[in-house]
Design a protein that fits this description.
- The chain is mainly alpha-helical.
- The chain is built from 13 helices and no strands.
Length: 294
């Protein structure tokens, strides 16, 4: 009669079959090791596939969120000008400055790939608070009076508050935190005479110190409702002369090393051909540097 063997685990089933086939213990052990290795690889592959799918879904969600906030940024920009290219130019300028700063030892650990990626996603939102500024102020030709300027300056706080409300709903999106910092602080001055909080020096987030230079360069070199476009050389002169006062000296030094790249990008992303301003216009705007990037 046949011997009946009761087995429970899958390994015992395989061992019973091996004995029935006359396999030695060594052969069985070798096959078990090979099967275990194959199972481990299969499990790792399944994990990779699952994670890949999760990563793809996460990227898709992030892209959707970014597309929505970018659309809002462009909406704000269209109220302030005829095109949304200011957003594109400032974003590119920020990326150029950040990469140049990374070449300096003191910034190498701070300006990581993740920092630059977040910066290039956050920069378009720097003026999102302008959606709350009335058109008669936003599009006013000429200088703003004291009350109008006070209203204009609220866009920094409103922008930060708006982005903070988004962050509360999606706390894991790192570029939104940087966007909040930039919106809130890119009008702060290095010497403490900016707004809205009169931060001084490195109290101002690095992302905002970078965006400040990028934003003012674009404000100087493009036509606005209150001014004509000024040439690249004049922008370089104004920004370099404001190092340590309005701007972080390290960011200005980086700007001076890549100014030719700024000039090239300004042409590539220009709203349209701009005539050279009259000398009196240059002098008038030169005396209004704080108002160039309101």
């Amino acid at each position: 009669c046949h011997k009946i063997v009761f087995v429970e685990s899958p390994r015992e089933v395989r061992q019973a079959r091996a004995q029935a086939r006359g396999w030695s213990k060594e052969v069985f052990a070798a096959r078990e090791d090979a099967q275990e290795s194959l199972d481990q690889k299969r499990r790792r592959a399944d994990v990779i596939i699952d994670n890949s799918g999760s990563a793809e879904a996460t990227r898709a969600r992030d892209e959707a969120r970014y597309s929505i906030v970018l659309a809002l940024a462009r909406l704000a920009e269209h109220r302030d000008s005829d095109t949304g290219k200011h957003v594109d130019r400032v974003t590119r300028f920020c990326g150029v400055l950040a990469r140049e700063l990374r070449n300096q030892a003191e910034f190498r650990d701070v300006v990581s790939d993740e920092f630059i990626a977040d910066l290039e996603r956050a920069a378009p939102l720097h003026d999102i608070g302008k959606v709350a500024v009335p058109d008669e102020i936003l599009r006013k030709p000429g200088r703003l009076d004291e009350e109008e300027m006070k209203c204009m300056r609220t866009h920094a706080v409103i922008g930060a508050r708006t982005l903070r409300s988004v962050i509360e709903r999606v706390p894991g999106v790192t570029f939104l935190r940087m966007a909040e910092q930039i919106a809130h602080s890119h009008h702060e001055w290095y010497d403490g005479n900016g707004y809205p909080r009169q931060l001084i020096g490195v109290e101002i987030p690095l992302s905002a110190r970078i965006a400040a230079v990028a934003d003012v360069y674009d404000a100087i070199t493009t036509k606005r409702a209150y001014k004509e476009a000024m040439p690249h050389g004049e922008a370089v002169r104004i920004i370099s002369g404001s190092a340590g006062r309005q701007f972080d000296p390290d960011v200005v030094a980086a700007f001076l090393r890549v100014e030719n790249t700024f000039a090239r990008l300004a042409k590539e992303l220009a709203d349209g051909a701009a005539a050279n301003p009259a000398p009196e216009a240059v002098g008038r705007v030169r005396r209004q540097v704080p108002a160039l990037a309101t």
